[in-house]
Design a protein that fits this description.
Number of helices of chain A: 13
Order of helices and strands of chain B: HHHHHHHHHHHHHHH
Helix content of chain A: 55-70%
Strand content of chain B: under 5%
Oligomer: heterodimer
Distance between the termini of chain A: 7 Å
Largest interface: A-B, 49 and 48 residues
Structural class of chain A: mainly alpha
Largest sheet of chain B: none
Order of helices and strands of chain A: EEHHHHHHEEEEHHHHHHHEE
Number of strands of chain B: 0
Number of helices of chain B: 15
Shape of chain B: globular
Number of strands of chain A: 8
Chain lengths: 368, 329
């Protein structure tokens, strides 16, 4: 009796380090983004709307007028800032999903400074020394809030994913308490900041956008061209190598976490001083989570983050418009963001591996 | 006597609030035993909640009020299918396409939350404002399967026999999962895949199949937690906020209960108690808002304590969170 050799229909082969041209790599990635938008249109269809019209409405609602564009940029700024904060951690394979809490901690510290010192300043225009002190306090508390899980991870290898996540709920709870109790002005809200503490506007958007653009360059240089950035990359690629090379892994982890938290804290300062002019428990509003997407979609490349954060800014602003105009729930933006991530994660496989189809029968041979 | 009553009432409420956590945790235990770390439980719970409620709601609308058992079965089945589908996406991307499990899980958390809220909102819009089931069904969902005289036993009656059907199903599930993992050959294979996929592969166990099945079934079980929350504590209506955080607590509980289904039983009741303590045991010196963060603080403490211990018996599956590729050695 003859039996055919069982060879699988599909075989996988790892591509060599540079077997796929960068053009194709980016084409695959772009294709996966389009594929995700295509999948998203299924959800829109299910909601009983025309996908093309819906995407058109989203685009118009996001970039149609100068005012819409400003609002879109306003949404993209914290996303970009936070993605820059998360990038070093993720490069190190340290799953910091506590950016939400670190933003809140930063905003909390900035508000504390305003409450403490605003009365010492005079005038009705933004005061640079006060803003600087707010930013500094925000970075400090944001950094410390991130350092706590960083310390335990470095010392006892405590699970950082859940630790950073729980820290979110804790600090948000603290702000909820301040909001309803000691710092309450009226109806469960904290009083608006005096104008002294407002970030000045440039081109219609608070000047946080200039700060984050500067940060893009700084983070890029830090990650790609500094010794510390190199250490982070080594730890991420191979912890054992880093230990063998004599790096102080724990110290580097704590340093990176502090830095990451500090940048997130700065974003918190921008949000409370520039965007809402006050503190509330919803100040971060999911930015900390969405920015994880930004960081990962852009392959931790600081410049790509600018584009991705704008894309997601358009998506979220567009989804708000979609809800009011076409009655499609705004949660559609979360769905599309999730799909984008799935597709981008999945497409890396086709960049790294080659699929080989089974050869026609006869060539493989048979065996007795 | 009064304190005893308070304690009993607290425990009953703890069980009610802990049941969604129990399902979330049990499902994730099964998933993680196969070496897959699915951080998407939060999203899975949202999907389970929305689709479970949707299933019951539309079934009642189209076919009339189903009988008690049927209603419970529909809720469980719809939620299970939603969770299984979500986990299928996760399995495909991590096991077949070998993407990073952490990021894929986070993506699932975002996606699932979005899908759940989207579906919940859509139902609300379609129904013109308010989605809920009939009062008969509400009563069925919160009722217990035991006869009245057993519930009338002083003190322990309500505590032992007065809980919802879902709790007892969860208990049976935990016991079955324990027996499966510890007493059956398939359970042994599953644990082998989670501990060391290369060894399991060499022994002729299909790593891919075990990972897929465990993750999909585990995700389905987790999703039941979502619908249990909706029909027992949220009054059979969809709300966007209520479930947030429960899925993450479930992931933390898996570590707390050391990947053991039976420990998940008391672990989830304990955390259920922590979640409602601020309502049941008010302390004047702790403001409510600060009291509410208690479960999260306790989770942090648990995480730290569990990382401190160096017991060989109490470690996660060795291959947890790592992709396996046969040719990668």
């Amino acid at each position: 009796m003859e039996e055919a050799i069982k060879s699988p229909l599909l075989r996988l082969e790892k591509r060599g380090s540079n077997s796929l041209k960068p053009v194709y790599v980016w084409m695959i990635r772009l294709g996966s983004i389009l594929f995700a938008l295509l999948l998203g249109s299924i959800a829109i269809l299910l909601a009983g709307s025309d996908p093309i019209e819906a995407y058109g409405t989203m685009l118009k609602g996001a970039v149609g007028t100068a005012e819409f564009r400003q609002q879109t940029v306003k949404k993209a700024v914290p996303l970009l800032g936070c993605a820059l904060a998360i990038a070093p951690c993720f490069k190190m394979r340290f799953w910091n999903i506590g950016a939400e809490g670190q933003i809140t901690a930063g905003a909390l510290a900035a508000t504390f400074v305003v409450r403490l010192l605003a009365s010492k300043f005079e005038g009705n225009t933004p005061s640079l020394p006060l803003l600087l002190m707010m930013a500094l306090a925000a970075m400090l508390l944001g950094g410390l809030w991130a350092l706590i899980p960083g310390f335990f991870k470095a010392r006892w290898n405590t699970n950082e994913t859940l630790f950073t996540l729980m820290m979110n709920y804790i600090i948000i709870g603290v702000v909820a308490w301040l909001q309803a109790g000691p710092w309450e002005a009226r109806q469960g809200r904290i009083a608006q900041f005096p104008r002294l503490a407002w970030l000045p506007k440039v081109e219609g958007v608070h000047c946080g956008w200039i700060i984050v653009l500067v940060l893009v360059f700084l983070v890029h240089i830090y990650m790609r061209h500094s010794k510390q950035g190199y250490e982070i990359a080594v730890i991420g690629d191979s912890l054992r190598t880093a230990q063998y090379a004599g790096m102080h892994v724990g110290r580097i982890m704590m340093r990176t976490m502090f830095l990451s938290g500090a940048i997130s804290g700065l974003v918190g300062f921008m949000l409370c001083s520039g965007a809402t002019n006050t503190l509330s428990k919803d100040i971060a509003g999911g930015v900390g989570f969405t920015s994880i997407t930004v960081a990962w979609l852009s392959q931790l490349n600081a410049f790509a983050m600018v584009a991705i954060s704008l894309l997601l800014g358009v998506l979220t602003k567009g989804a708000d418009t979609l809800q009011t105009v076409m009655n499609v729930p705004a949660a559609i933006s979360d769905i599309i963001i999730g799909l984008l991530l799935f597709c981008m994660l999945g497409c890396e496989f086709f960049i790294n591996y080659r699929l080989i189809l089974r050869k026609k029968p006869g060539k493989g041979g048979t065996v007795k | 006597m009064k304190t005893l009553d308070t304690v009993v009432l607290l425990l009953i409420a703890a069980i009610t609030y802990g049941t969604p956590l129990l399902y979330g945790t049990l499902g994730e235990v099964l998933t993680e035993r196969s070496g897959n770390l699915n951080l998407g439980v939060e999203g899975i719970l949202f999907m389970g909640g929305a689709f479970g409620l949707g299933g019951v709601y539309y079934c009642e609308k189209l076919l009339g009020t189903p009988s008690g058992i049927a209603a419970i079965a529909i809720a469980l089945l719809c939620a299970f299918l939603a969770g299984a589908l979500a986990s299928l996406i996760f399995s495909f991307i991590t096991t077949t396409l070998r993407a990073n499990q952490n990021v894929t899980g986070l993506a699932l958390a975002i996606f699932g939350t979005g899908v759940g809220q989207f579906a919940g909102e859509m139902m609300r819009v379609r129904a013109g404002g308010y989605v809920t089931v009939s009062n008969e069904l509400k009563a069925v969902f919160t009722s217990s399967p035991f006869p009245q005289f057993m519930k009338d036993i002083p003190y322990v009656g309500q505590l032992l026999f007065g809980n919802s059907h879902f709790f007892y199903i969860g208990v049976i599930l935990a016991v079955l999962m324990h027996l499966f993992l510890k007493k059956t050959r398939k359970g042994l294979y599953l644990r082998a895949v989670g501990e060391n996929p290369a060894t399991a592969d060499a022994a002729g166990i299909s790593v891919t199949r075990y990972k897929y099945l465990a993750t999909i079934i585990g995700g389905g079980i987790s999703a039941i937690g979502g619908v249990v929350y909706i029909v027992t504590t949220a009054g059979c209506t969809w709300n966007n906020e209520g479930l947030s955080g429960v899925g993450w607590l479930a992931v933390a509980l898996v570590i707390f209960c050391l990947w053991r289904p039976l420990s998940a039983l008391w672990g989830s009741v304990l955390f259920g108690a922590l979640m409602i303590l601020y309502m049941r045991l008010q302390l004047s010196f702790i403001p409510t808002e600060l009291y509410k963060i208690l479960p999260y603080v306790v989770t942090v403490v648990v995480l730290i304590l569990s990382s401190l211990r160096n017991n060989k018996e109490k470690q996660p599956p060795e291959g947890l969170g790592l992709a396996y590729f046969r040719e990668d050695r």
